[in-house]
Amino acid sequence: MSIDMQAVSFRADQKLKLFIEKRVEKLNQFFDRIIHTQVLLKLENSGQIKEKVVELSVHVPGEILFVKSSKMSFEAATDEAIDSLRRQIEKYKYRRK
């Protein structure tokens, strides 16, 4: 599985990148035929508080699974997005049987 990571209008530090890569790699435990994963990190200004937004798209045979999550930290948004993707992958596997 290849992982592309982009940060919009800021530079993501190495620690954050490693954290996200580790979490995305764990998706292989649920489905080993993931082709490609794209991660988009954005800052969303909602009033005085800047929310962190994580968008994940996972390319599997015949379909693209997408999830968007926004929280106060990238780590929390990533965890929520990975949990949602895990459920989508399980549904995808069930439909393919």
What key phrases describe this protein's structure?
single chain, 97 residues, alpha+beta, four-stranded mixed beta sheet, 2 helices, 36% helix, elongated
| Approximate helicity band | 25-40%
The unreliable regions are: none
Report the radius of gyration as a whole number of Å. 14 Å
In which order are the strands of the major sheet placed? Answer: 1-2-3-4
Determine the number of helices (DSSP H or I, runs of at least 4 residues): 2
- Main β-sheet description: 4 strands, mixed
Strand-residue proportion: 35-45%
| Helix and strand sequence | EHEEEH
Distance between the termini: 22 Å
What's the count of strands?
Answer: 4
The structural class is alpha+beta
Structural shape: elongated
**Overall average residue pLDDT:** 92
Write the layout of secondary structure elements.
Layout: E1 2-7, H1 14-25, E2 36-46, E3 49-60, E4 63-71, H2 74-96
Parallel strand pairs: 1-2
Antiparallel strand pairs: 2-3, 3-4
Helix pairs in contact: 1-2
